[in-house]
């Protein structure tokens, strides 16, 4: 079993909620975790102090491999000259010199190639971001080297596919081109943030694309530690916990409950993994039975 923790939109600075952050750190220590994904917007205004706080928070998470990418709030907004000339200075000083990252992780007989792409684009698109063709080519090269049977995961801050019931924030320009490219390279899972509300579904919910058999599983993370939740997660905090075995990929959505002072699971979404999503010789009853019998444990086994 491969176990991933997905958090996003920490927003260190005025929006950050210390009690929620403490609860997340406590919960993370209680879950089997093989790798962590941090989906950007670590800070509110990209100051040195806020990045220092964000780095201390990341360092307090379980000591496992992780990928982290900047979000649009991790570049200066009002410090215009800095945004135009050296937008990632504080991020690279305190968080990571690498703006695009590749992580290969294994747990038991399960493996994953995680490609994290910087979509911040501070000189062109502060709000809805960009992913350039060379970044897609980076994905292609890495996934071409990924053995069959290993998960292929793309991480971005901005969203290629918004929830079907949420239209306040436009997708990135070129989003459909990117989704077609990801489908052609057999991407299993797309992890995003930015919207401050969770959505777990399939890219086919929004865009049919050129390959309409299976689509890509989409796991948008809400804001994990700030008071800036939106829509159905207004003033709420959440994270996603992702588990993969040979047959099934499960995304469990966790939300913070103020009256209890802790995170708790509120929804579980199970998806058959490739090639198990195509069962041309099985009846509907057999397919349902296979999904029911697929293991779903949190013990890291």
UniProtKB/TrEMBL annotation:
UniProt key word Metal-binding: yes
GO MF annotation, one: hydrolase activity
Pfam families to which the protein is assigned, alphabetical: Metallophos
SUPFAM superfamilies: Metallo-dependent phosphatases
Domain Calcineurin-like phosphoesterase: residue ranges: 3-197
Keywords: Hydrolase, Iron, Metal-binding
Ranges where the record places region Disordered: 274-301
Family note: Belongs to the cyclic nucleotide phosphodiesterase class-III family.
Protein name in the entry: Cyclic 3',5'-adenosine monophosphate phosphodiesterase
Organism expressing this protein natively: Pirellulimonas nuda
